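Here is an idea for our session: we take a single protein and study its fold together. Which protein we use is up to you, so please pick one and set it down. Once you have written the record down, we can walk along the chain together:
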Amino acid sequence: MAIKTILVSQPQPEGENSPYFELAKKYKIKIDFRPFIKVEGVSVKEFRAQKINLVDHTAIIITSKVAVDHFFRIAEESRFTVPEEMKYFCISEAVALYLQKYVAYRKRRIFFGKQTIEDLVEVMKKHKSENFLLPCTDILRDKIPQTLEQSKMRFSKTILYRTVAADLSDLENVYYDLLVFFSPGGIESLLVNFPDFKQNTTAIAAFGPTTAMAVEKHNLRLDVNAPHPKAPSMVGAIELFILEQLKKK
């Protein structure tokens, strides 16, 4: 199976230095980018049906930039003025810096971990008296609330946005040698858009264990699994797969 065309189920990287572009040039292959999923915010009516009172919370747990946008959107649409003394606990420094879009950056109010919920909980333990709000998606990983519960954090979870399948109908008669996925939602979108999808010789790449499980759950063949010891990145795993195919020629 010679790999000549690849579809990556994510937005095209900004700039010209993406390793995907280097891979395409190195092996003379065509790589296209197309998000398979999109985010939709819940309405104020749906939010209120969750019976979450924003005024009861003194701190927000922020796990992504999308969560930042939808928290402040719901606050505005529900006419809630976010108090200046509100504290923000962000999964990473990048997310913490993104908060500047909405609030003045002050170290005494904004805290962040290194990238995982375990790191963030260590920071939160110094502020256990806070009443935390966790704005999230409808497909939030169980690990996050479980870690908070195990650490005896007082928090409420509220779904402010959901992940839905993007419209891929224009790809109906377009074929790729390799499809690359980064979430179970991407696999679901493929099958929602193309319920009669037959894999045949098309290779499938999956990043992360939950994505790999979604591939197998739907009886699809997993050809490229990342990360693994020889290839911590998806691009590295794809390159190894291309090299394996070239050896078989």
Q: What stands out?
A: Residues 40-163 form a domain with the Rossmann fold fold (CATH 3.40.50.10090). Residues 55 and 80 are 8 Å apart (CA to CA). The chain has two domains: 5-36+166-247, 40-163. Residues 234-247 form the longest helix (14 residues).
